[in-house]
Amino acid sequence: MKTLLERARDREITEEMRFVALKENLSPEFIREGLVSGRLIIPRNPLHTSLVPMGIGKGLRTKINANFGTSKGRAELEAELRKMHMAVHFGADTVMDLSTGGDLKHVRDEIVKASPVPVGSVPIYEAAAKAKHHFMNLSEKDLFDALIEHAKSGIDYMTIHAGITRKALRCMDEQKRIADVVSRGGGILAVWMRHNNRENPLYEGYDQVLEILHKYDVTVSLGDSLRPGAIHDASDKAQFEELRTLGELQQRTLKAGVQSMIEGPGHVPLHQIEMNVRLQKELCHEAPFYVLGPLVTDIAPGYDHITSAIGAAIAGWHGADLLCYVTPAEHLRLPTAEDVKEGVIAYRIAAHAADLAKGYPGAMEWDNELSRARKALDWEKQYALALDPEKAR
Q1: pLDDT (tens digit, 9 = 90+) per residue, 259-270?
Q2: Is the N or C terminus of the chain more exposed, i.e. has fewer CB atoms within 10 Å?
Q3: What is the pTM of this model?
């Protein structure tokens, strides 16, 4: 069976392409050409039957993602479903299930079934949770089996930490970072590689990764294992060594008929954000860029939805395509449903500010409508146009 990307190469305009074109007020041919070039993606697993298609990439509205998931200490499915519904209600374009506790398959299946937006996941979390005795005993089979299980659940895109290599780890060791590896998936692989004195199995076995993704038509989100987790660590040699590898993997992914996006930092001071986005676009051939924040300072625990939304707006302005939200609970605890709402609203503001700066068609009209209602003292219309009508009222 052909993937969506392969159908686009065959000059076929699919229902998904037409739907995204209509939502973005663009031509279906623009969407098809973007898929072929790798500048756009439409993450959708055919097994995710409740999905409403959406696009991410160059020329499209800046999108936002919301994370949630169970843990060993808090494995309540209903609580995570509430977070998902809260995120989607307030405008999240995608969600990610980062569960590590409880019945992981059941949680994943229920989230996919309930979600109208694309669902992402990180299969290595499950592989590590199921590893006998310790994740250092993970085998290549464990990793690939997790990919298959997530694909069978209908997951639309997966974070695959294939870019962290032994060379990149050596670069990090030379840097004297404050925060070392803050990516959970990257940290698991870094410890595994050092303990077993071997190369990253996801890097060495990337052809097999692509075979699985192709079979289920799942988009790959190439994970930034060495993203900076402290302002001090931003834009160092290790980060950019991994980025170069991700650019190579993106080309292999495109050639294999699989859609991909690239994950990015992290913690980055204001004056380095534009350079980071431009370098990613150059090294990764304008593939969609998915950034976590970035947080522009480390001094505000409890307010990191603000420190990161500042960075997200600037990153989006300069070309980042998907902004991964940060909640007020970041670095402190697991987020509540209210934290999820606060994070989503902050990132809707950031994404819209970026679209205004980029001149995205129709973005200014929303502001103009609210401004006219404000001038006319039309309170009901102001509430209706607000991002959070209840709070505005």
Answers
A1: 999 999 999 999
A2: N
A3: 0.97
